[in-house]
Amino acid sequence: MKKILLFALFGIIVHLQATEVGTGNTYKPFTYVDEKGQAAGFDVELLKILQNYDEKLEFHFRPVPFNALFAGLDSNKFDMLAHQIAKTKEREEKYIFSDTPYFNVILNIITAADTKIDSIKGLQNKSFGAVVGSNQALKIEEYAKKNPDLKIKIVYFKNYGTQLLALANHQIDAILDNPIVALDYAQSAGVEIKITDLTLQKTSVYFVFNKKDEDLKNRVSKALQRAREDGKLKNLSLKYFNKDYT
Asked: Domain Solute-binding protein family 3/N-terminal, which positions (predicted)?
């Protein structure tokens, strides 16, 4: 649901519809709530940059747990989503995505610091943690289905924090995730984890919209392309990660 913002300009009241953006509250450094209680992170900062390319783009950020994002989009509480979301067949049937991705994620198998898994064969009979509905959950579900001989067990969690603590406490054997996120959260939580050299997939992520919001999708996509062309998208990645993942 778009929020109406009112501005007085030369004595004239200007109505600007702010786009309600559903984003994350704990997925640091991409989407989280900072110490001031404000939405922050790579995805949020990127959208703030995109506002500068189109006077009709004005974003209002609504940080929520990941499992509330799509419900919010379905109920029109949000106009779009920004939370490192990958395409899937099911999602493409229901939603539309920005014309191009804004980030490319490499997913590694991550374990507790003292767990030894150094080969695909070592995944046999192991338990994987996954946040319900997340990109990582979809990827490990897909991998387990394609490799039934490994007998991988998937344990689901409502949020990222409890999943990582379960990993550190050996309640699960591994997770599949972006090393950037895992290391940042582990450091904040004071737990030790290990990033293995095992990667399952490179995943591209997009902004997500309801099918009825084609105009909004087009505006965001055009602004994203301009940010890519003038180097601001690349520079933002370098600022956060010292590497261009875009």
From this structure: 18-244
Architecture in CATH for domain 105-202: 3-Layer(aba) Sandwich (3.40)
Contact at 8 Å (CB) between 87 and 97? yes
Per-residue pLDDT reduced to its tens digit, 157-185: 988 889 989 999 999 999 998 888 888 88
Q: Which two tokens stand for residue 40?
A: 């922050």
Are the C-beta atoms of residues 182 and 135 closer than 8 Å to each other? no
pLDDT at 38: 96
C-alpha span between 21 and 24 (Å, rounded): 10
pLDDT, mean of residues 190-202: 87
Give the right CATH number for 3-104+205-241 from 3.30.499.10, 3.30.980.10, 3.30.365.10, 3.40.190.10: 3.40.190.10
Q: Is 203 exposed, middle or buried (0-12, 13-18, 19+ CB in 10 A)?
A: buried
Joined tokens for residue 179: 């090393």
